[in-house]
From TrEMBL:
Organism name: Ferrimonas gelatinilytica
Coiled-coil boundaries: none
Keyword annotations: Flavoprotein, FMN, Iron, Iron-sulfur, Metal-binding, Oxidoreductase
Listed Pfam families: Oxidored_FMN, Pyr_redox_2
Family: In the N-terminal section; belongs to the NADH:flavin oxidoreductase/NADH oxidase family.
Protein name: NADPH-dependent 2,4-dienoyl-CoA reductase
InterPro entries attached to this UniProt entry: Aldolase_TIM, FAD/NAD-bd_sf, FAD/NAD-binding_dom, NADH:flavin_oxidoreductase, OxRdtase_FMN_N
Amino acid sequence: MYPKMLAPLDLGFTQLKNRVLMGSMHTGLEEEKGGFEKLAAFYAERAKGGVGLIVTGGIAPNFRGRLNPHASQLSFGWQVNKHRIVTDAVHQAGGKICMQILHAGRYGYHPFSVAPSAIKAPISPFKPKALSIKGIRKTINDYAQSAKLAQRAGYDGIEIMGSEGYFLNQFLCRATNHRTDQYGGSLENRARIVRELLSAVREAVGKEFIIIFRLSMLDLVEGGNDWEEVVQLAKWLEEGGVTIINTGIGWHEARIPTIATSVPRAAFSGVTQRLRQEVSVPLVATNRINTPDVAEQILQDGQADLVSMARPMLADPHFVRKAAEGKPEQINVCIGCNQGCLDHIFKAQRATCLVNPMACYETELTLTPTDSSKRVAVVGAGPSGMASACFAAERGFKVTLFEQRQELGGQFNLAAQIPGKEEFKETLAYFRHRLDQLGVEVRLGCEATLEELSAFDHRLLATGVVPRVPQFPGSDRAVTYQQVLRGEVEVGSKVALIGAGGIGFDMAEFLSEPHESPTLHPVQWRAQWGVDLDYQQNAGLTERHSSAFESARDIYLLQRKTTKPGAGLGKTTGWIHRTVLKDRKVKMLTGVQYERFDDQGLHLKINEEAQCLPVDTVVLCAGQESNRGLAGMLDQQGVSYQLVGGADVAAELDAKRAIRQAAEIVAAL
């Protein structure tokens, strides 16, 4: 079914069983007490799932290269044994694994960071120290030592991180390399450290050891490399003996989205294809590849020799196996939300996955099979309800799922309509297949009665939320975000959104989008964000197309609080939403008191100053309240139950928390 993706790749001294590389992603387990045992279980599960080659999260080659003061490092012989726990587990599961060596450079979140030049990164409060010639030579030796120790630890190879704006990428680009010695100036000088380092590493590990180099093929920052320089770097890497060149897209400080859910699938694979014409070493395409169909198409089109997927392996460790068995509909597809993975890591929390709460918790959150014949009723078929039903059925319970509407999905049906969130439809499709596969009895258009529920052994109420309706004169003329997304009301050309949290931002994007979602059209999306895969200008940057600044409506985004609008948005994606709304000239007002809504518009006060917004539609996005009507009736009858998801906590529409809670509750039944 996927002949290219599943074809083996002969590397000469070893063979990969397929063309799928599990890309590097830090989990946070690397630094936890007992974390390597948990990490072993995490990677072993992906090896069992059939992935061809795993690359670990970044491990520093020395102290100054750490991402933070407590980050993981491999520099000493006594550290080898804990890594062997991981490699043994992966090999026993039939997999191969490489350790990524990552030096943070100026991205290091500590006062001991070093870089080619003493230039502070915009994403770190610490200014790095410029590395001396002696320091460069020591760092090269540290890389070689780390690679040798990785080999001793049983890794099949290493990946040298040279992209995303980290240490080696900083040396390679004029923006961050202002040196005037032999390691600065011309490309040959800027690349000197990489070539010397690669030579030292290859000498340390020998010929029969995988060396992947992650090369930034598209820097997306001013002062990044030109295309001719990228090609030359790749040729030098090939001459230096790399086994595989992986693709790096964008620096962490770049103001262009590269992996968020709003980025089109395989949006950047064209740049890998261009480089493939220049070198013969196997190349890896990466970024927003999340289904076997997309992966297969990239390989069929000759854009790459392998495809890298990191977050998709969080979402479903058995991605490759399911594809190989011809069952792609059973894959729990990564929706690119970043909520459980990158947002966690950048807040120093353990990574996991919104759609798969067991990710990185393989030894702690388990669904132990039961031979119990007990019956479980789940009321409400939103994300928490569908997850509860599936998890309970996986354990062996007899499950009935009640849903008063005629469709599964709840709030996810609404979320999937927001431009850039089309991937949410994949989760809905997965749950529909899973419910059917597990034999869950699904009753749509059916309200669960007290009499019916009392006959079950366990009752899980996932009845969701209802919009909060602020009360002021004329508020009855306002409409809710749910009515808008369900197409139940007409929305005018001038709109006020009451509430500037996640729902308000989503509605602002939905109502301001003048065209079909650019996420569905890679060429238009790249034009809107100023990405040029043809490299007419430095670093693949170009002028943003005028469509980025068009809006379908005049919109006001309002909130009572005086804090920054969207303060609770995702740590790694919030800036994207703010940029879109700023581009579309959405007016954001805080500290608002609502007076009335009439034919003149929405009357309000800000700092006791009265004004009237000339709007014809007011949309309520002021949060939501738990829907506990059924819970109250069960309380009156003395019937036990457990609340799940929004029915339990409605502070924010948080599918990540809801699905995880479903797993935890079901695991304890």
